[in-house]
Amino acid sequence: MLTAGSGCNSISGHDVDGRPSSGNAWSRGASIPEMFKVYSFIGATAGSYAGWALGSTVGVMTAFMVGMVGTGVGIYVGRRVARHYGG
């Protein structure tokens, strides 16, 4: 049963009285799904940059399309790396 001053606000990760809750993501460390997101973001950034750099030698539209393919490849590689190193 929740009483005044107890419970957790799931949006801010703080207890009702303003103190950080003991079960938020910052206190327990990053989980595997969170690492998938981080590695996917890093892979997407690197892949889109590489695709844009390759496609820009032809033109802007080609750079955009190759950058999108690079983003997808980067997400795939990032998730594979996270799965390999994360468990």
Could you list some keywords that capture this structure?
single chain; mainly alpha; 87 residues; two-stranded antiparallel sheet
The number of helical segments is 3
Q: Look at the structure and give the mean pLDDT.
A: 78
Major sheet: arrangement of strands: 1-2
Class computed from helices, strands and strand pairing:
mainly alpha
What is the total tally of β strands? 2
Overall 3D geometry? elongated
Biggest beta sheet attributes: 2 strands, antiparallel
Name the poorly predicted regions.
none
Task: Compute the separation of the termini in Å.
Answer: 37 Å
SSE string = EEHHH
- How much strand content do the residues show? under 5%
Structure characterization notes:
By secondary structure, this protein is mostly helical. The chain has a domain of 57 residues. Helix content is 63%, strand content 5%. It contains 3 helices and 2 strands, in the order ββααα. Strands 1-2 form a two-stranded antiparallel ribbon. Strand 1 and strand 2 form a beta hairpin.
Short description:
The protein is mainly α and 87 residues long. It has helices at residues 25-28, 32-55, 60-86; strands at 8-9, 14-15. The protein is built from three helices and two strands, in the order E-E-H-H-H.
Topology:
Layout: E1 8-9, E2 14-15, H1 25-28, H2 32-55, H3 60-86
Antiparallel strand pairs: 1-2
